Hints:
The complex is a heterodimer of chains A (239) and B (242). With 239 residues, chain A is an alpha/beta fold. Chain A has helices spanning 43-50, 71-75, 93-103, 108-121, 137-148, 167-180, 193-199, 217-223, 229-236; strands at 4-14, 17-28, 32-37, 57-62, 65-66, 78-81, 155-159, 185-190, 202-207, 210-216.
Amino acid sequence: MSIHLKAKFLSKSYKTKKVLNNISFDVFKGNILGLVGKNGAGKSTILKILSSLIDFGGDVFINKKSIKNTDSEHKKNVGYLSENNPLYMDFYIQEYLTFIGNLNGLFKDDLEKRKKLVIELCGLNSFQNEKISNLSKGYRQRVGIASAFIHDPDILILDEPTTGLDPSQILEIRELIKNLAKNKIVIFSSHLLNEINEICDKVIFLDKGNIILDSNLKDLKNKHNNISLDKIFNKIIPD
Amino acid sequence: MYTIFKKEINVFFDSLYGIIIFSIFFLINGLFIWIFPSSNIFQYGISSLEIFFDVVPYIFILFISSITMKIISEERSLGTFEILLSQPISYKEIILAKFLSCWFLSIFLIFLTFPYWITIYYLSNPLGSIDNIIILNSYIGLILLVGAMNSIGIFFSSIFQNQIISFLSSCFIFYLLYEGIDMINFYDSINLIDSFIDHFTFSYHYSNFTKGIFQISSLIYFIIVMITFFYFSLVNLRINLK
């Protein structure tokens, strides 16, 4: 089944500060959408809105169905990895995945199958009986990603998933995201433009809560004579 | 909801923190009930658990403040509350699961004091000459009292991200509601409102049960406190996090 996510006139203010200004975009199944912007541009806020974590103005439609007032139903369809990747450090990996699986309605055989699959895909095989607190940052990030898609959601939302990882871990996580995106919508934010260049189909440049650019990555590069994404970004959003 | 309830119980029993809190509870209780000359049951001369039911609310002030202080505030300060919020469960379910887990732990602890009842039963002379109705009602009153305390403790845990502030606030309010308001009785000038204020204290309603009276109004009072602070926690979290 095809999935179409459409965000219409999203806005958000924290007290008197407006962090999102009526922004709209859409994304389809199989696409990886990258959100790029400086600190405070509104990337994390968009991801939190799409995960139904915060109230917002405007609306988001999944296959023409609004996510407003359907928090629990929508969350079943979304996997979210937060920027800081909070985890229960005293849990063992298996125990943590069981906990998240249970919260998403997975039990017994279904849960075991999904656990086995996500552990395999995230390269956690040799650590599955470890306590999370004993893992390196890279492996904790993998646990966060594994828990985000253990319930096989249609939409995967990842807030800076490669921050703090070493180069080889970054490459592995990128490969994982590309694999997962084949039958899902993946939306993620990053400061690393080469990362966006590597894995995204579509890119949105944000600045102070506004969309400055929303384009297919190939079209964007063709339009700018295949110069690097960093240069395009600096050209469009100068310091 | 059961998943979060189970997690809270497991976390408590898996940690050193849980074992310490349980041990301290029984140590303090044991000292007051069986050892300290001024309060021990042997000196009391009557086969009754009155001393236990007089002392245990004060111990619960510390115990419940300790278990509820971290239940939300720790998760918020560590960021793990976001894990729960991103799952297909509502705020209501999260708070209810946390409340029920704390209440369950308190009731479990109360249940572990049942041997006191059996001991007194066998110590009484003639055998079995104890008022079981008073003891049963006192246990019901205690279960309701700790339910109300847990609901208030969770509310403070939802307000403060600092666990120490949450602990101190809970202790203060528990003491105020249990005994502090009663202290106002010492001031003759406001005697007129004494009886009215009394109806808002924990001690007034709890003492009905410890006298062996099952008062529906006291039952309703404790249920209202539980529901009110449950909704305060809910509203506070929704306003601050949504």
